[in-house]
Amino acid sequence: MTVLDNLQIELPSWAFGNSGTRFKVFSTPGTPRSIEEKIADAATVHRFTGLAPVVALHIPWDRVDDFAALRRYATDLGVTLGTINSNTFQDDDYKFGSLTHTDKAVRQKAIDHHLECIEIMAATGSRDLKIWLADGTNYPGQGDIRGRQDRLAESLAAIYQHIGPDQRLVLEYKFFEPATYMTDVPDWGTAYAHVTALGDRAKVCLDTGHHAPGTNIEFIVAQLMRLAKLGSFDFNSRFYADDDLIVGAADPFQLFRIMFEVIRGGGLDKSSDLALMLDQCHNVEAKIPGQIRSVLNVQEMTARALAVDTDALTVAQESGDVLGANQIMMDAFYTDIRPALAQWRGERGLPTDPMAAFAESGYQETINAERIGGTQSSWGA
Amino acid sequence: MTVLDNLQIELPSWAFGNSGTRFKVFSTPGTPRSIEEKIADAATVHRFTGLAPVVALHIPWDRVDDFAALRRYATDLGVTLGTINSNTFQDDDYKFGSLTHTDKAVRQKAIDHHLECIEIMAATGSRDLKIWLADGTNYPGQGDIRGRQDRLAESLAAIYQHIGPDQRLVLEYKFFEPATYMTDVPDWGTAYAHVTALGDRAKVCLDTGHHAPGTNIEFIVAQLMRLAKLGSFDFNSRFYADDDLIVGAADPFQLFRIMFEVIRGGGLDKSSDLALMLDQCHNVEAKIPGQIRSVLNVQEMTARALAVDTDALTVAQESGDVLGANQIMMDAFYTDIRPALAQWRGERGLPTDPMAAFAESGYQETINAERIGGTQSSWGA
Amino acid sequence: MTVLDNLQIELPSWAFGNSGTRFKVFSTPGTPRSIEEKIADAATVHRFTGLAPVVALHIPWDRVDDFAALRRYATDLGVTLGTINSNTFQDDDYKFGSLTHTDKAVRQKAIDHHLECIEIMAATGSRDLKIWLADGTNYPGQGDIRGRQDRLAESLAAIYQHIGPDQRLVLEYKFFEPATYMTDVPDWGTAYAHVTALGDRAKVCLDTGHHAPGTNIEFIVAQLMRLAKLGSFDFNSRFYADDDLIVGAADPFQLFRIMFEVIRGGGLDKSSDLALMLDQCHNVEAKIPGQIRSVLNVQEMTARALAVDTDALTVAQESGDVLGANQIMMDAFYTDIRPALAQWRGERGLPTDPMAAFAESGYQETINAERIGGTQSSWGA
Amino acid sequence: MTVLDNLQIELPSWAFGNSGTRFKVFSTPGTPRSIEEKIADAATVHRFTGLAPVVALHIPWDRVDDFAALRRYATDLGVTLGTINSNTFQDDDYKFGSLTHTDKAVRQKAIDHHLECIEIMAATGSRDLKIWLADGTNYPGQGDIRGRQDRLAESLAAIYQHIGPDQRLVLEYKFFEPATYMTDVPDWGTAYAHVTALGDRAKVCLDTGHHAPGTNIEFIVAQLMRLAKLGSFDFNSRFYADDDLIVGAADPFQLFRIMFEVIRGGGLDKSSDLALMLDQCHNVEAKIPGQIRSVLNVQEMTARALAVDTDALTVAQESGDVLGANQIMMDAFYTDIRPALAQWRGERGLPTDPMAAFAESGYQETINAERIGGTQSSWGA
């Protein structure tokens, strides 16, 4: 399982804050009031799993005066700061678009926000600037589809020229939401066309919840890796909409197939620059255990995917043995890898059962008691 | 167009408040701060269209001390108070369900809320209690599907026994959201099974945005009318999720087909008790014009549906003339009925172009100037 | 695992014939030319698995002169004849409908076909008459939705009155295909409304591939069992359309959840009258091994569903422990039950690895050599 | 309406043959038995509409000994031969793929078939070679997703090098069907990546029925035109699957929006090389009138799209007037353009009502009487 040692998952700082639906955001005891408390929670996930040494930030939610200090804070807790996620969807100016807006001043404001993010990256030591746009329209005619694309290309180019030689711009696509009629980066094809136009340090981010029903996501994984344009994952799972559930919860077999293609494409090789990030909302479930469960799910499905007998698979595929090939996949998926993973953890000084160990650790009770007062972190704060 | 005179549309009070997505709620000038201001806006829609004489309320958002006074206030403005919509999704107690909750105390609280709504109905003169439940679960295993149904049936029965002889309980179904894995009333079949078990005064509410992709909604309309169980519509339109867009905006031909089945089933007969309500969110578009456009869309598609030559259609259908039958439908849909509707309005002393007339009326400018301070109405207030 | 001993799966005779898409039907060596050869293959599946003692027939595809003789033939091979499936979709008369047709003569022809099926049931000892209708329309206006429902109800009633006291009419619903605009029995609600109107011996058939994207199928299972109206399953799996793939192949976790609800609703109790049938097409994979794999998948997911610690689950559910409840489900799903099932098979004198045993048995080679000439069975023959 | 004069639609020869679903292909009187009869029918559509001067061929279905003679035959009837459509899905060799097959011999056979198509193009004077691949897999593991892409790229390159300087290779994508788990060219992104790798004379074909639910097709139109890679349309409409219904039948507003983007992108300019083709199946409706209705639908929605006041639209868009912008679109869509089109036809010596004129022409009765005996054309012949 040496490949498994290469598996590193990036946690989103916002997963530790409150989240919800348009109908209601429930608050919970112990929710962080600051980025420092979020990082502390993220470091806890890593401490119990050994899988999550990186924390992604969201600007402006996680803006601090001194990012270099924040970086040291994180390092002291055993984690590093990762992807910087921009936000151009919560300001009134962005009601009708950000990088695609018809008003040059608004576009420039959005571009400037990304330049600020790039500055932050220098301080935090982050490699990736991730851009997810809420840009889109709700009604036919509201916007000029073509013109919006042209302005998007121009804005992205303006940002990209500030991306450093060791940095990357990662463009995320999303099938729908919050816009209803038209999303400006709705599919991997659009993201791919844009990042190809930008250059080698521009890549695509694949969020597993951002596709139409019936989409074969592992195909897109394989294709983008083949095209050398898969920059990162936003892992989560969903049943119908962008549910942002725990990765692997809705369809573990799909996660298995995705990780199989990641491995097939070299995504877990030592030389790989593929970032595996979570992007989830824990609306009704406990947040820290939710993150622990998530990274364990990724690890578990990775381990099962690694167990596929690829030599036998190739033979079956080339001989047209449909059932035989499928069975080789299923055998790996159905094999209970959990004892082996418990052993893997034990050998590395980690709790063999991270969920139980966290529950028994008293960490949750401590933060519930300590984090009184202040404003709990949530979307928009 | 005498049938057209029977068309009355109920406006939702909440359409005049701010709404949005989980990512952002934009506020707009002139937004009502109270139910009285919402009613004033709704009455304005009616004044310009002659189509919307009823305002639906949402409890607790629209709770007042004196509902009888509110009723008089509405009457003075030329509208009446309509459906009472309950709310069991914004209280922390309801995190894991309301009428379906495993905790009897929570269920009783939710039942009591509906009994309060029934009391309000007496004061407002409302006929319908509409129940939309956010109940559901996000993860497999989180709840016992079967047990939740049994508790739902029990809770509904407890409410139904308080429904007066001239009142109705209307149960709405919704395919998804806010719950992600399982919704307790996800489809018309479930709503139908429950209201059938309750009795004659229990009906189904069909929200046009609450179906899976590819669902033939007019079929459900026809079926529920055939079963005498279609109580009301929540009109809106959508592209993928429950977008709550202006009815007819996403697919006007679908609205035409729906209204054709409504007419086919007697829903616009004088004796019909079918309620036609809007349930929309105006996130980025102007609210009052958005409601005006909505009721005009319903009227226009109704008028086009009334123009179908049903005798010729029957002949074509019975002779297997697929293209001929389809063409009869399309001819009605493609005929520009707007001049006739302008004349219809003129004859009734209404502005022939309600959208233009409202824009020129100065109403919006007045409320923008007057409604300063206070808290704008929105979801949850 | 005593409950597991109650698991009996019904095989469809047509799974052993050639099948395909509208683009191409591939033929394969050894394909049966007669119902006797299909039964021989089905009996082989049972011999290797101990799970499939019943064979469903399709009329007219499987029509013989002497059904009593066919019954004895089956018995001699160790299987019995099961559900009789009617066919009203391959005759030119049915181009515009069968039980719903506007022409009374066509309706009567379709009714008479079902009466013939009921006569066959007497000879074969079958309990269930399964009705799947291809009825529907391709274009808006082509048919009168409401009138078609009324005629359907009338036709079903005419058939139902011939259903014997120990027989059942099972009505299958299907979301789409072959009709494109409107399907006359598109959802479980429609099937439920019809069978409820018919009487106690009318039930619903749930085909796992006949739902819109995002539909929670286990919810429908739970609901129909609660309403005592789930008559049978047509098991298969799908990615987007009605793919008729091997059950459990596309989403084994979904099959696990379905079987969990079947068990929860008493569907594997000794007293249960729920029929578990396969309805699949083996277009590119080997047919007999495809059926073996299918019944093993049902057994395996049933065994995993039986492993759920339901007492602990209830505690977690009632305490709002979302992650805990989910983990209990996942623990059962992730546990490798295959060794226990191999033992179960061994104890019953069955091959511990049925797939391997069949491959080594020489059966396929024998039928490949013997079944030369004649017309291979396929859709329509 | 000078732009409207540029509208030319290509008819598929196979639309005049019988087609159906996997369940049943209905035959109809007058169905062509040869490509000559198909062309005669296509020329008839053109004679009544003035819109369809080109006929696309399908090889091998339309293979003849002397394509030059066929070309003269078409010219004599007033039409030309257009796109050559290859077929690699009806030969047993292609069971597990054609251009993507693991077996080099099968790939070469498929490549050679395309080279034959290119030779035919020389004889027929066709510009476009259209490649739609049925390649894909039904089960996870059946094929190596990545390897299949690599082989596809290699095969396409082998074909492309034979594409003449005035010819084009047009690659069609399809979301699903006939393969169920994975389609080798499932989305526009994949087609775009491949044709970009090939060169300037490789383009994408957009079939309007080949997308996931909820996909905004006009966005893809706008994007591909922006990228200068939209080669052609396969027009049809659908409700859920690839229904191949008459274009505009399922959602005329969508067709309007698509044509709006075609115009916006210059697709109806004199210099445009965009091919507008139909790809439909007339399963239950009359074939020739079905094609007439189809081209009229395209013309009608094009005319409505041309009626959009684009200057006013831009003003509304740039001022954030969502409702105003939408209304400008809807005004054009709702305007009854049919009288103007009747006049347009009259001025050009065409029947003002092509559907009625065809019905009265006696053409159908003549071919019904004449085309007796022989084998009716259908899929596969």
Task: Explain this structure.
Chains A, B, C, D: One of its GO terms (molecular function) is L-rhamnose isomerase activity. Chains A, B, C, D: InterPro entries: L-rhamnose_isomerase, Rhamnose_iso-rel, Xyl_isomerase-like_sf, Xyl_isomerase-like_TIM-brl. Chains A, B, C, D: It comes from Mycolicibacterium flavescens. Chains A, B, C, D: This is L-rhamnose isomerase. The structure is a homotetramer of 381-residue chains. Chain A has helices at 35-49, 67-76, 104-124, 145-160, 188-198, 217-226, 252-264, 287-306, 310-318, 322-334, 338-347, 354-361, 363-370; strands spanning 9-12, 54-58, 80-85, 128-131, 136-137, 168-172, 182-183, 202-207, 230-235, 275-278. With 381 residues, chain A is an alpha/beta fold. Chain A has one domain (3-307): TIM Barrel, CATH 3.20.20.150. In chain A, strands 1-2-3-4-6-8-9-10 form an 8-stranded parallel barrel, surrounded by 6 helices. Chain A has a two-stranded antiparallel sheet with strand order 5-7. Chain A is globular.
What is the fold-level CATH name, i.e. the topology of chain A? Answer: TIM Barrel
Percent strand of chain A:
5-15%
Identify the most extensive interface between protein chains.
Answer: A-D, 60 and 60 residues
Mean pLDDT rating of chain A: 97
> What CATH architecture of chain A do you see?
Alpha-Beta Barrel
Strand adjacency order, main sheet of chain A: 1-2-3-4-6-8-9-10
Oligomeric status: homotetramer
Series of secondary-structure elements of chain A, N-terminal to C-terminal = EHEHEHEEHEEHEHEHEHHHHHH
Q: State the major sheet of chain A.
A: 8 strands, parallel, barrel
- Helix percent of chain A reads 40-55%
- CATH class category label of chain A: Alpha Beta
Instruction: Please give the domain count of chain A.
Output: 1
CATH homologous superfamily annotation of chain A? Divalent-metal-dependent TIM barrel enzymes
Number of helices of chain A: 13
Global morphology of chain A: globular
Question: What is the total tally of β strands of chain A?
Answer: 10
Low-confidence stretches of chain A: none
Q: Would you tell me the structural class of the helices and strands of chain A?
A: alpha/beta
